[in-house]
Amino acid sequence: MTTSLRTATPADADRLAALAAITFPLACPPGSDPAAVAEHIRTQLSPERFVAWSASADHALLVAESPGSPGSPDVGPGSPDDRTGSDGAGDLVGYALLVRGVPDDTDIVAVVGAEPTVELSKIYVHPASQGTGVASDLLRAALDAAPALVPDRAVWLGTNGENARAQAFYRKHGFAVAGTRTYVVGGEAHDDVVMVRPLD
After folding, report:
1. 110-144, pLDDT tens digit by residue?
2. How many CA atoms, within 13 angstroms, populate the side-chain half-sphere of residue 68?
3. What is the DSSP letter of 84?
4. pLDDT tens digits, one per residue of 13-56
5. How would you classify residue 163: left for phi > 0, otherwise alpha for psi between -120 and 50, otherwise beta?
6. What is the CA radius of gyration of the chain?
């Protein structure tokens, strides 16, 4: 099945929030407090957040979309796994978010400096689409979009220190561990590694 990539619009916000509610818990380390994860989803991955990111000049929000299947018995309007728009648009199977800004976390400043930079803040793919190449396509598209936010700067990201699979994926695409940080999810602190991809 063909998957296409495009820039998100505010109309995607509800579907993106639903996708985020599925994918974010899967990236959390074992033992994470479910209540803390739920609070993070409610406050940090809400439709309102996605509307704001899609309209912001300091963000690039990309989506991966596959052809819709609105009559499907297991993925349809109103189902818990509803990724299809009410108009029969394609299923959103992944998304990536880039953020332009000056780091204010001293751990990040120690790695990338106190200058405008681009963070790959989020990249998630629905579990049913993992292993299909969608994540790699999204990451390459995000890296292509980064210079429009801040030219001639390396891209950085944070990922949980226990998530070996994610780290291997990022290394495959040119990132390397350069430091650590503390990342708070719903009031619960987690240890992240900071990874940087140098300029080509």
Report:
1. 999 999 999 999 999 999 999 899 999 999 999 99
2. 14
3. B
4. 999 999 999 999 998 888 889 999 999 999 999 999 999 999 99
5. beta
6. 17
Strands (E) located in 67-133: 91-101, 117-125
| pLDDT higher than 80, residue 181 | yes
For 13, the 3-state DSSP assignment is helix
Q: Given the structure tokens 């499907």, which residue do they identify?
A: 72
Q: Is 11 helix (H, G, I), strand (E, B) or coil?
A: helix
pTM of the entire predicted model: 0.86
Residue 127 DSSP label: G
Question: And the tokens for 70?
Answer: 């609105």
Structure tokens at 92: 């959103």
Q: How many CB atoms lie within 10 A of CB 31?
A: 7
CA distance 177 to 175: 7
The single residue listed with the structure tokens 């405008």 is: 116
Q: Is 107 helix (H, G, I), strand (E, B) or coil?
A: helix
